[in-house]
Amino acid sequence: MQIFAILSSAAVASAAVMAKRDIIFKVSDFSAGCVAHSTQCLYYFNVTQPGSPGAPDVPVTCKALVTANNDGTLPDVDDGTCLESARTWTALHADAGITLALSQQVSPASYETGSHLLASNEFTISNETNAKVQSYTGPTAFDLVD
Ligand SMILES: *[C@@H]1O[C@H](CO)[C@@H](O)[C@H](O)[C@H]1NC(C)=O
Ligand SMILES: *[C@@H]1O[C@H](CO)[C@@H](O)[C@H](O)[C@H]1NC(C)=O
Fold it and tell me: I need a surface site. Which of 62, 73, 123, 128 has the fewest CB within 10 A?
């Protein structure tokens, strides 16, 4: 009954969201890593939207060149952009890793957002030639779900 109470007090639209984890975007070619002997880190990925009707589902490239944390680890990105696209994304540290979330505006007042947790154990810290840098070693393709 508690679930019913929550659903009935929320907008009808969010009932569908709660019922199922829909795939909003598909990411491919994902990489994230910092460059040894540099202060730079690059997040890069391609993204498609499987549900989009009409237009062919051409991948959009999203990337951000950001300054490494002092310890050589990947920093948060809170204003990521995609080439020739209004989609925006964030990569924010969470307890269990880094959450990648991508949004697309679908009307003046609403956005579609999908996210995926890049787990802590999918990152490695290399210590080659005395340069400690972090990079992502997990799957390069995954879904962003709501
Ligand atoms: C990302 O998608 C673009 C556009 O389709 C493509 O040209 C590029 O090669 C892709 N990137 C990678 C790393 O495959
Ligand atoms: C990284 O390399 C330096 C120099 O080779 C070494 O002193 C340090 O202990 C290494 N750190 C780790 C975490 O392996």
Answer: 128
